[in-house]
Design a protein that fits this description.
about 350 residues; alpha/beta; 10 strands; about 15% strand; globular
């Protein structure tokens, strides 16, 4: 039986009308399209292990991550609510830097240095001296349980200074995560408020590797998580425990933000720190620990108070199978880089 009866030739010379020829070509193209689509569907890769638990929680289905990373190369200039989405080398960023060029601005960079994290402080500060707001007035606020880890003192450039704020020993990352927002609020209230215009918080196990300039300044600044940029909303690891103060409903949320680097105007950062610390204390009293610790509460707050400036994954990046492709890496997370390694790689890199 012929595939296309109307295309079948007789025993004599082949005679096909123009209409028959068009119909044959059309059906042939449909078959090719169908076969191509079937082959493409077979090549879908499985989701990365870090997302597999999400498939089983609350009935939420996570779409295949590898397929959806196709959107990661996009570099939109603004968020759906009109806030700038910052890519350091864009003309929009150049315009933002020009806006601040004529203003005298005081910026603070705050980091917690507790326990074994003291090993990162010199690398962090040396890189910040080179790349963080060059040419601006910057004060480093180092909250530490071991001030002696900063001996001998690091030589800083002009208009740069460091203030060491002793805090009680907080062994273990989880304990620090429960206290960090409270300590941030206290530091802002006691000194930062009168000494700086903007304050940024950064995990100390990071390294600046390219210029981070005035394009990052804004009232409330958040940074996109590099492994979740370009992913669908149902891939975001928001808090799913309805009893938690950090709980996010399925119809909430625009982006997922990292806690590695965020900041803003001092007054706005104080509001953020106070609100998050109260949410954390409430959950602690109820015996609840959010899945992402401090990052879960930060994302809850940023859903209710959308950032006025969103930094692209250029400003928080590490190399993993899921990390978005970005034009420039500006701030590298050494800690999360180690988390992405297998056991052999961790040993090789002395994680």
């Amino acid at each position: 039986m012929a595939l296309f009866p109307f295309c079948k030739a007789s025993s004599g010379p082949i005679r096909v009308s123009r209409i028959q020829l068009v119909l044959c070509c059309f059906l042939l193209s449909l078959i090719i399209y169908y076969l191509h689509g079937s082959r493409a569907a077979v090549r879908v890769h499985p989701a990365h292990p870090i997302f597999r638990p999400l498939e089983m929680e609350g009935g939420r289905k996570v779409t295949d991550m590898a397929v959806l990373k196709g959107a990661e190369s996009q570099t939109p200039a603004e968020t759906p609510w009109g806030a700038p989405l910052v890519w350091g080398d864009s003309r929009h960023s150049a315009s933002r830097r020009a806006k601040f060029a004529q203003r005298e601005i005081r910026i603070g960079l705050l980091a917690f240095v507790v326990g074994t994290y003291a090993q990162f402080i010199r690398r962090f500060l040396y890189s910040a001296e080179t790349y963080f707001l060059p040419g601006q007035v910057v004060t480093y606020y180092i909250l530490t349980d071991n001030p002696r880890s900063l001996d001998p003192p690091i030589k800083l450039g002009p208009e740069r200074e460091m203030k060491v704020v002793p805090i009680a020993e907080l062994p273990g990352w989880e304990r620090l995560a429960h206290r960090r927002m409270t300590l941030l609020g206290d530091a802002i209230r006691e000194s930062i408020d009168s000494e700086t215009d903007y304050i940024f918080c950064a995990d100390v196990d990071q390294e600046f590797v390219a210029p981070v300039r005035a394009e990052i300044l804004g009232d409330l600044v958040a940074t996109l998580h590099p492994e979740l940029y370009g992913m669908p909303r149902n891939a975001f690891p928001y808090e799913v425990d309805e009893g938690s103060s950090a709980y996010v409903e399925e119809d909430e949320g625009d982006f997922y933000y990292t806690s590695e680097f965020y900041g803003g105007a001092v007054s706005e950062m104080y509001k953020l720190a106070r609100a998050c610390s109260l949410l954390i204390l409430q959950d602690h009293a109820d015996g609840i620990t959010a899945r992402g610790l401090e990052e879960s509460y930060l994302n809850r707050y940023l859903i209710d108070h959308r950032p006025t400036c969103v930094l692209s994954p250029e400003y928080s990046w590490w190399d993993s199978d899921l990390s978005a492709h970005v034009p420039v890496h500006r701030l590298l997370s050494l800690g999360r880089q180690c988390e992405s390694y297998n056991d052999k790689q961790r040993e090789e890199h002395k994680c």
